[in-house]
Amino acid sequence: MKTITVQLIIISLVVFFISCNQNPQSKQQQDSVSQLTDSLLQDYKQKGRVVTKSSFQALSSALLSAIESEGVPHALQFCNIKAIPLTDSLANAYQVDVSRVSIKNRNDVNKADSLDLVFLELMQQNLILHKKTSDTIVMIADGALTYMSPIIIAPPCLQCHGIPEVDIKLENLQLISTLYPNDKATGYQLGELRGMWKIRFKN
What we know:
By secondary structure, this protein is an alpha+beta fold. It has one domain (2-201). The protein contains seven helices and four strands, in the order ααααβαββααβ. The chain has a four-stranded antiparallel β-sheet with strand order 1-4-3-2, sandwiched between helices. It starts with a helix and ends with a strand. 25% of the residues are buried. Mean pLDDT is 86; it is low at 1-34.
């Protein structure tokens, strides 16, 4: 119950944050926050976990297969061309919007917006203070519920997102620069927050 109460407080803060920085919300949207029940929040959170797990497994399986068959360069090229279409296909299957966002994005499509930054900062603070962080469910300005789940750097991630010339080979760094001229997504260490999954439930 305590966790749900904290989430409702966060939702209210996000509603306030958005209404101050974008278009004011209608009273109906504001009232809908207080109408969310514990069971409804948990139901949507569970749905978010299912979609995230499926998306992560599909993406990580394809990347590991690419690395095993033809090495990291092949995985980088796969990511560049097929990662977003893959998550889009899963989004269509589940009838939701699926995205991955980060402060240090590789692809410009994955750049965190102002609302994302609020939750990424909360996740980062939890990771620093408690050595762990968790998922959450929030209501955004248009009334849609959005599930957010942290992406944590695991050992396989370091080959493409770790420390240059320590975890990432020079030839792979050069390929990253070619495929992603504006890349910011290197320098990570094991266990750090890479970004987060966002699952937006359609009204």
